[in-house]
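The records we work with from here on pair a chain with its fold. The integers have meaning only within a learned vocabulary of local backbone shapes. A complete example follows; check for yourself that the lines match position by position.

:::
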Amino acid sequence: MTMPATFTADLLAAAPRLQGLLDRFATCRVLVVGDLTLDEFLTGQVERISREAPVLILRHEFTRQIPGGGANAIYNLAKLGAQVIAVGLIGKDVQGEALREIFSSAGIDTQGLVVDASRPTVTKTRIVGHARQSVSQQMVRIDRKSDELVSLEMQLELAAVIRSQLGNVDAVVCSDYGEGVFTPPVIEAALGHDRTIVDAQKGLPRYQGATIFTPNLPEAENAVGYGLPDTPTVERASQELRDLTQAANMLITRGDEGMTLCDRTGQIHHIPAFNRTDVFDVTGAGDTVVAALTLALCLGATEWEAAVLGNLAASLVVRHFGTATTSVAEMKATLAGLCEEI
């Protein structure tokens, strides 16, 4: 792996401290406000063409349910050992109960889940088929969700839940997937903590004064209104976005180009990608970045140290198909291996 000499020197010098931060991830307590989604995969084997219509008939084999959207951010934090409080909306349905059960099984505090009987739990159901001795392929996806504005009553209930926990947590994460949870009362409540991490697909200026934003390249382009084809324009955009949001820090994730951080002093840092070859699926990698970054910041890491650990975590989950998580043990081993390679 080829990385800039200045970065490798900094990484080697920081490695003992980074390992120490990883050792203390389990001491952190984080509240995550999110657009919660349940991802379902219904998998079966193709038997024949239906006589009723020109469609395939699948013999159902198994159904898999995993956290998606903001729920994936919550799950990533828990898998890194953090004590996590989940806040968000679920419907009065089996999908909502499935999410609650997934969280409870991972040791996640679910008291902040607010049930809204007027809307379904956001659910994305993928129908996956395969022939004998062949790879599985997604055939169609069915989405369940409501486009109606969340009622004022539910907005205020979510905000009240957030405020009641602000004094009990080391950080607040806003995982905004645009599904309606993040209304002005909810955002105002979340920004009441002095360490608020924002991962939003759009509408970044709504979160004025957050600690750090983590947009990916397309999200950053959308926010500034122009393309970011090279490093100089990314640097310019990171500074503009930091000014636009009045954020302390702006971290733009750039896929195989790594990350660009504009820190609270206005200094620009470039962090190269740790894994550019074994990349199978980037789905959910941003949630993994946020999880590791947040826990590092909770422990007093610099923004550069936190971004490096976020980058390290993402380099592991992109090796797997679909949303995935990593662990402290895996991160520690990978960091040690990187240093040995250098």
About this structure: The first helix runs from residue 5 to 23. The radius of gyration is 21 Å.
